[in-house]
Amino acid sequence: MTVSSNAAAVADADAASTSPCEGVQTVLSVLLVHSSKRGDWVFAKGGHESFESRSECARRELLEEGGVEGVLLAELPAVEFASKKQHLSRMHTFLMQVTRQHAVWAEQAERRRKWVPMQQMDAVLTREETRSVWRMALQQLRVLGYVDEQGRAVFKLPSTEEDAPIMEQQLQQQQQQQPS
Q1: What residue ranges do the domains of the chain occupy?
Q2: Distance of CA 65 to CAs 18, 58, 79, 157, Å?
Q3: 111-143 burial: b if 16+ Cβ within 10 Å, else e
């Protein structure tokens, strides 16, 4: 079985409209990278190095494939699927708020990146495992209070590392308690 870490990276862009109950409404966008093998749009992902945790792998893959850094908001349930070669694979996915986007990144020559408004994600994603991850990420954004039941963004996401240290600590504790 192949085990990889995946990351759904989100960022907000201020909108002119306001939410009637919670203040500023934002437009959440999701970072996708162009698959170098299949030519479709996916979340950044890759295999673990022996010395790193799943969250460290997700951070590294986002930096290498998408040129972004940020705050981890949550770990989503693992998704198992059959790879293109029909091998059983398991993806561990993290939801990340992007706080920095680099103009130049490691895999820039091999991969394009694009920000997709969350309302357009279903039309862009073609792989079932990627759609499944997106559904879980959207549900987690609801649980965290960033998205309402209709899928509209209602809160600004944390914009700096200082805004979300408790989430980072909780993720680290959860990972230490869970087997790989």
Answers
A1: 2-171
A2: 34, 10, 21, 22
A3: bebebbebeebeebbebebbebbbebbbebbee
CATH superfamily of 2-171: Nucleoside Triphosphate Pyrophosphohydrolase (3.90.79.10)
Residue 119 phi, psi dihedral angles, 5° rounding: -70, -15
- Taking only the tens place, the pLDDT of each residue in 23-47 is 444 567 889 999 888 889 999 888 8
* E strand or H helix that includes residue 169: helix 165-177
Q: For residue range 76-121, what is the model confidence (pLDDT) as tens digits?
A: 888 888 777 778 888 888 888 888 899 999 999 999 999 888 888 9
81: how many CB neighbours lie within 10 A of its CB? 16
Here the tokens at position 9 are 């990276």
